[in-house]
Amino acid sequence: MTKAEIASEIAKTTGIDKAAVVTVVEQFMTVVKDSLAHGENVYLRGFGSFIVKTRAEKTARNISKNTTIIIPAHNIPAFKPANTFKEEVASK
Description:
The chain is α+β, with helices and mostly antiparallel strands. It is built from three helices and five strands. A hairpin with a 4-residue loop joins strand 3 and strand 4 (67-71). The radius of gyration is 19 Å and the shape is elongated. The two termini are 17 Å apart. The mean pLDDT is 94.
């Protein structure tokens, strides 16, 4: 499902103008991205959590040049679904 399809579905079920729904969905995504970029997790009760995970520094190999490189520690975004979310998906 794409962002446009999500907006269409919300507009259809709520009766709100599709352009307004697209604006709200885009602003929601912006708020989540900004929060994660500042190291803040986003918790949506009953849905899940958008969290920041830290990857440790590691050594990797460049096979073509036969050398090793160090990949520094870095943060990555992740999503952890709520238990009710997981149960609903598993039952379908």
